[in-house]
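Intended use. Records like the one below are meant for learning the mapping from a protein sequence to its folded structure. Do not use them to infer anything beyond what is encoded.
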Amino acid sequence: MPNLLRTYASGFTSFSGNARNFLLLTFLMSFAQSVFTLVFNLYILELGYDRDFLGVIGSIPGLTVAALAIPLAVFCAALSARKALLASLGLGFAAMAGLAFFTGRGPLMFFSALLGASAALLAITAMPLMARSSSERERQHLFSFQFAVAMTAAFAGNLVSGWLTSFWAAGFYGGGEGAQAYRATMLAACALLLAAVPPALRIREKRETAPGGGAAFASLPLGLTLLVLAPQLIIAFGAGMIMPFLNIFFKAGFDLPISSLGFFMALTPLAMAGGGLIGPWLVGRLGRVRAMIAFQSLSIPFLATMGFSGLLLPTVLATFARTMLMNASWPVYSVFMLGYFPPGQHLAASALYTAGWNLASAAAARLSGRLQMDFGFTLPFLITITCYSAATLLLSRKFLKDDSKKPVVATAIKEEAE
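Structure written out for the chain above:
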């Protein structure tokens, strides 16, 4: 592990200026958003809404991303990454502030949609920007490092969110973890988001003439595109059943105070960061498809333990292990997916992936909110286990034969992208 970290540290110095600025922006945005997200679901319930409406609110950003990803990709084909990122930050700030200040159903749904528009701009910009800002040899390194940076920031943000809420509650609201204390933390997150503006301003590109967004979509091979995206879309549906509601799962199942909830939730992005760092290491020994299959199949028993043990310590440990293993494959998949398309189609492929992932996840979140009212978390966990198993089987049957028969030869993580 020390050698792996040293390799990442030395690799960071070789990244382009745009790549380093995007990594800093990723950290600052993820930190602010995790401060906000930890308390948001709890805030909605404190306002008096039920879990069915929580499912509605949870699904709206993803549905908005799914609806806007492709139109925005066509528009953003002529828009610089710098402008797209600044627009994403502006929309995100407005959405988070609106969700904190307005409590009616209509405004909450509107600002949730605005948050989805912000996420759509970021999602369709991120992967093509990183691909343009890296060589083939360092691409897996950059994608994995960016994922680890985002998750490390989320770890810190969850801790800070729990501490901040406890501070507001103890100092200003008589010790009660009510809506006012949650709102104060959400507003603090809005202020923290503004720190991401300077690195966005420093991203500059000399854009080459490229085919229009519509032409890039038209040239995508439909059958291959659907096949490449299918495993992740199945995983997205499974993840949407559980992951947006982890804070509710821990809070309701184990009656945790907000400071303890913040600590346990912080373990989730910390596990993701660890997975992001070890992913390229396993790719270097097994190949991309075998690495993804290994991570996903090993995560399934931990998912079952997490959902059905009923004991806090086994649940926390299983959550950490499942999260690390399952999310280790995300940056590996991103490079795997882009490898099937030429650079001129990266924006289109990224938009389709973003739209599909968010549509599947949002649909699952909406369904999960309803199922939780009737079955608790039992049925959502069973659906997630089924989805993860099906996605792993699909990878094995359709892509394993195309994986290199030899381990990827690399020094630590600088293996050549396919």
